[in-house]
Amino acid sequence: MDKFTTLTGIAAPLNMANVDTDKIIPARFLKTIKRSGLGEHLFASLRYQDDGAENPDFVLNQPKYRHAEILVAGENFGCGSSREHAPWALLDFGIRCVIAPSFADIFHGNCFKNGILPVVLPPDICDKLIADAAMGTNARITVDLEQQVVIRPDGSKIHFEVDAFRKHCLLNGLDDIGLTLEHAAAIDAYEAKLPDWRPAITGV
Length: 204
Description:
Elements lengths: L5 E9 L6 H4 L19 H4 L22 E4 L11 H9 L3 E4 L4 H9 L3 E4 L2 H11 L6 E5 L4 E3 L5 E3 L4 H9 L3 H6 L2 H9 L12
Parallel strand pairs: 1-2, 2-3, 3-4
Antiparallel strand pairs: 1-5, 5-6, 6-7
């Protein structure tokens, strides 16, 4: 998993509440267990018209937001089913941070496990960031995880809270497997002490 330290990038304004995981990545695209290629289908029902053509009115189809790395959204982002494909699709598109007044719990946890930083800020602050994001490439937002601040285009800083353990994992690029491998030496030492008569587990 890639580390998240400081991100300065274009923020796309998605001023919608209750964006569920089926809107983020529709169920018909969940047939794969690969994490790549899902960005093409991110927000498919919003990005594409019935004939498959792009919807020019959707924010991520607009030229100034095609390379957005930050998404500023409404409350209860990521509600609905618990599909991990939702953060996969965001990440594959290039989104590394989502800022919203609130997140669905499972989606919130899945973001951290996949290298995306979900930032919770009050609704009025999110409104200001949405206004900043509306300026497109003329206004970039910085998210500093180490200092736990969002820096607006005018230089003002907004503090956000984040769980210390999850912060550690993001700063060091540690997913669940990475956390386990941090204890590789202890695991090897334990296995070395196992009796020789114990059968090896094969075919798993």
